[in-house]
Amino acid sequence: MRTGEIDDWLAGRARAHRFRVERRPLGALDGWSFADDTGNLVHHTGRFFSVEGLTATLGEGAVRSWQQPVIRQPEVGILGILAKEFDGVLHFLLQAKMEPGNRNLLQLSPTVQATRSNYSTVHGGSKVKYLEYFAGAGRARVHTDVLQSEHGSWFYRKANRNMLVEVDSSTEIPLDDDFCWLTLGQLGELLHRDNLVNMDARTVIACFPQPRPATVALLTDAELRSWFTVERSRHDVDIRPIPLDEVEGWQRGENTVERADGRYFRVVGVRVEAGSREVSAWDQPLFEPVGTGVTAFLYRRLGGVPHLLVNAKVEAGFLDTLELAPTVQANPGNWRHLPAEDRPPFLDLALNPPSDRVRYAATHSEEGGRFLNAESRYLFIETDESQTPLQPPPGYQWATPGQLGALTAHGHYVNVQARTLLSCVNTGAVQL
Predict the structure, then answer these.
(1) Model pTM above 0.90
(2) Could you read off the pLDDT of 182-205 as tens digits, one per residue?
(3) Domain count, the chain
(4) Would you say 397 and 306 are in contact if contact means Cβ atoms under 8 Å apart?
(5) What residue numbers bound the domain in which 339 lies?
């Protein structure tokens, strides 16, 4: 498929199926209820996911303690992209997938994007297409298979298998109407478009194995890992699940669970119709953030080599305290009530960068299966010594894209927002 044909193809897939998302009161969601003893919002099967409470206490930072709702989904799902050579060129099988939280509903997703409950058909629906290449034995050559975290501010210790598998060029792959083959270069072009390549595809692309150029980094790989280990070990955190009924500062109404001051996010309910999914209709809760986020890597060329300014960021839902995040990862509205000195470093620069220093900018949806209209503006911004000193603030360090990419071969090092930006590097969407 030519890149210019993607829009018409997606429009055709949208016409081929019935897609509809309507808000519904949380108390009226079919199959969901608030547990009598905890107030947790749970599915009647005990599967899929639940909305519970979380309490967090940190040893440092502008906000050192809080409570919030959180999504608890202990199942490990599969995010997998199937690859195959056509005429000597590697292509990747992407799916036009509807997710209820996407503002435009239909986006390009991995070949397989499914929770264990989905691919084990707990819902009683149809089977996940192409699953056999990822869950079967010996059907494809594995290039990547690594557990990676998801959004640490909204999920509690959630992880998915990020997989890239390749079949031999002689293998016949029946092509479903909702799937298409695209090259890496095409994916790079499409990553310049807003809300087109979904989060799950981006995180898998970030984990694609990449050749490491013979460049000299400011820190060796061992020094970078040592710095990361020190950062992870020095933080004193106390993070525990609690019943949703006990979360302070949040209130449960007929339609939502939200804060009285309207900040951060709210829990809402939706009724979904999706003709192309394994189940054609269902109800579920979603997290709806307030406002659009900004996520940016500030970078410099040090010794002629591009270096990204990474942040060892603590998020309450991480399995192990912190992961490497972009320089800036924030929803600006969540910080406006605080003094300027308590806001995230470099936030103003990410919000108002010099136009001639922006090397990449696009708005991407976050996880559309659990979040409603959750979007962030993703950027790469070239900086200098006056903006980003060689000796960065505590919690920040310089790393090359190659070093960060190598860490994606291991779980729980690089967070999902940083992986979105790495996917732009891996596909050539940005040239640093």
Answers:
(1) yes
(2) 999 999 999 999 999 999 999 999
(3) 1
(4) no
(5) 1-432
